[in-house]
Design goal:
Elements (H helix, E strand, L loop, with lengths): L8 H6 L4 H10 L9 E5 L10 H16 L4 E5 L10 E7 L2 E7 L4 E4 L2 H17 L3 H18 L1
Helix pairs in contact: 3-5
C-alpha cells in the first residue's frame, strides 16, 4: 500500500484504520515540504484497489501532484524489477545520524545500529537503481490516475 505519509485521507479511511489513527497520519503529513522525501514505490501499489476507483484515482493523483510540485521525489519500481519486495524500508537521516525502519511480514524493526543502517542504505541504492526515473514515475502515476478515473 501507499506509505502513511503519502496517503490521502480517503485512502487511509478505506484501509479501515481507527479515526484517531487516520487523524494522526494526516497530522504527520506536515513534514512534507519541510524534509527531503524520496518515495520509491512498487508499481503494484498503484493497482491495488483500496476504497474503489474514485479513492484510487485521488490517491494516484495526490502522489503525482506532490512530485510535480517538488515536495517529494517519486520513483516507481516497474513490474520487471525484482528488488524491494521484502517489505517497507524507511531511512531518516539528520546531522549525520541515520535511523532505519523495516516493516516485514514477520516484524517491524527500528534501529540505529551501524550494520543495519549500512545494509538498509545498500538496499535503498539497489531499489532506486531499478526504479524508473522521476519524470517517468510521475507519468506512470498519472496514467494510473486516468485508468482509475475511467473505472469510476
Amino acid at each position: 500500500m501507499f506509505p502513511g505519509l503519502l496517503q490521502t485521507e480517503n485512502y487511509a479511511r478505506a484501509l479501515g484504520e481507527p479515526e484517531s489513527a487516520v487523524d494522526q497520519r494526516m497530522q504527520r503529513k506536515q513534514v512534507i515540504g519541510k524534509a527531503k522525501i524520496t518515495a520509491i514505490l512498487n508499481y503494484a501499489v498503484f493497482d491495488l484497489d483500496i476504497g474503489g476507483p474514485a479513492v484510487m484515482a485521488e490517491q494516484c493523483g495526490y502522489v503525482a501532484d506532490l512530485a510535480e510540485k517538488h515536495l517529494i521525489y517519486l520513483h516507481v519500481v516497474p513490474d520487471t524489477a525484482r528488488v524491494g519486495l521484502g517489505g517497507a524500508l524507511t531511512i531518516a537521516t539528520r546531522n549525520g545520524h541515520s535511523t532505519v525502519s523495516l516493516t516485514t511480514t514477520v516484524r517491524d524493526i527500528t534501529s540505529t545500529a551501524p550494520d543495519l543502517v549500512d545494509d538498509a542504505l545498500a538496499g535503498y541504492d539497489r531499489i532506486l537503481g531499478a526504479a524508473l526515473p522521476a519524470v517517468e514515475s510521475v507519468e506512470f502515476a498519472r496514467r494510473r490516475e486516468a485508468a482509475w478515473k475511467e473505472r469510476s
